[in-house]
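#struct-queue
[09:14] JT: dropping the first one here, sequence first, then the structure tokens:
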Amino acid sequence: MSERTSESSEKPSFQRCFSSVAGLRAVRGARGQTSARGWIRDEEERLAAELGLGAIRLEEWRWGRAAAACVLPAGAWVGRDAEGAPVVHGAPDRVTLSHTRRWVAAAAGELAALGIDVCDVVDAERVRRALPRFAGDDVALLADANDATWAAFWAVKEAAAKALGVGLFDGGLKASRILSLEPLVVEGLEAALEDWGDAAAALVWRR
């Protein structure tokens, strides 16, 4: 059996995001207290079991795949490649996932590169410590920036790293160069930002 069968009383709710970007499908959801158990395919649940994920990571996994189901064709599901990145089975689409303590997001499309990321504004202090050490000189754009802008910058950087297939510990934050935040311009890539109030979300792609 490979259908999704609900074991929770309430189906996780997702809303469209980045709707102005043509040729892409993207959704977001507030994780809340609802479990996504039963809303992912059996193949995805078996893969999670093989990975031996802990309880918190397992629920993140489920939420990400439940979101992906909203942007992928019927019958498609999300596995992982040799590097641990999400890969689609049963469709030619690329898929990208992100989650924070509150939010989960997914995007898909038939593109050369695609990445999505969400950064909670409350994490701005952590971002302030990490970016100067691991990002390139484009971090200079953040002079006198507020917490929301630091979160947005991080989201763009991580989304770009996902799109380019470069891990954060392998130089992912230096793999892209942000030329401007207003308007948002990323060298060699297309990008969009959304303000979700308590979080910044970024989508980066190449057609």
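[09:21] JT: and here's the second one, same format:
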Amino acid sequence: MASEEPPIGPSLTQQSLGAHLHGRRLDGLGETYYLPRAVSAIIHDFYAPLLIGRNPLDIENHWNNLFSAVSFFGSMGAEMRAISAIDIALWDLAGKHSGQPIYNLLGGRNRDRVPSIILVWAMVITQTTRLGWKAAPENWRRICFAKASRP
């Protein structure tokens, strides 16, 4: 059965650390971290031709095709970060298309609250570190890692 959903549009871009898949009426935003130019090159040069013109709602099929195309590199590196950004962007598109939050598309909410944490990693404890620590709401768990100084 042919899908009536709009295909992924003609441009696939990454700005900063976010990958955008431009559909006819919707934009999906996906983000990744570390070496954004490498990830952007993989998205533009390798993955875009595999996605353009295809139904953006076939998310699992896209993930399997993209992973199969690069799995000989292993399951780490810029290729996987690019797949992650694309996957997030496709889920964002699906949520916007259906008018539902993504958690509904992924099986629904399973809790009313999510525990939050503030994590501070510091070489030395500074005034800025202390201000960030104090800025967290009282019900947040706090964890601090600091480099131990030698006597």
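[09:30] RK: nice, looked through the second one.
[09:31] RK: Residues 78-98 form the longest helix (21 residues).
[09:31] JT: good to know. The first strand starts at residue 12 and ends at 15.
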